[in-house]
Predict the structure.
Amino acid sequence: MCLWTGPGTLYESCCTNCSIPNAVVIPELAHPNVSEAAKWLYRAFGFRERLLIENHRAQLSVGKSGGIVVMEVPPDTAADSLHKVMVRIDNVREHHANAQAHGAVILRAPEDYPFGERQYTAKDFAGQVWTFTETIADGDPAQWSCTLVDQ
């Protein structure tokens, strides 16, 4: 069931893509050491490694449909952009146009990625960073140097 009927409605499970967690809202947390963070989150909080992307990104699962992304802290990253939120929606282009019309600062225009997602990134009125993603294909993690650990 769709939770929002505005532009780019929230993800309704119309497509599957094993390259992204099956969650609507996916926090992206920056850590200096992705591998150590993933191991600690497993031991302390019960997250499961789902997908490892070389040594700079990991997807972790929790419960039946929860997920987070642990990402490497890029050099010279401002403290206010260390953590982001990813939201799965049905129509990235429409959502992007609506966000832009309402004053969102677009950091990255809609783009199709080889891992099966169409995404754009924006800052809200308070400077928080959001990525909106639409599944457009079932990406094969092996094609982009990843290891699918657990679905």
Remarks:
- The domain at 25-148 is CATH 3.10.180.10 (2,3-Dihydroxybiphenyl 1,2-Dioxygenase; domain 1).
- The radius of gyration is 15 Å.
- The first helix runs from residue 34 to 45.
